[in-house]
Amino acid sequence: AMDGARPPTSPTGLSAYVAVSQLLGLTLLATTGAWLGRYRGGVAWHSPLQFNAHPLCMVLGMVFLQGDALLVYRVFRHEAKSSTKALHALLHGLALLIALVGIIAVFESHRTKGIPDMYSLHSWCGMATFVLYLLQWFLGCGFFLFPGASFSLRGWYKTQHIFFGITLFILSITSCLLGITEMLLFKISDSYSHFVPEGILANTLGLLLVAFGLVVGYMLTREEWKRPPLAEELALSMDFKTLTEGESPGGSQ
Question: Looking at domain 15-227, does it have CATH number 1.20.120.1770?
Answer without folding.
Answer: yes
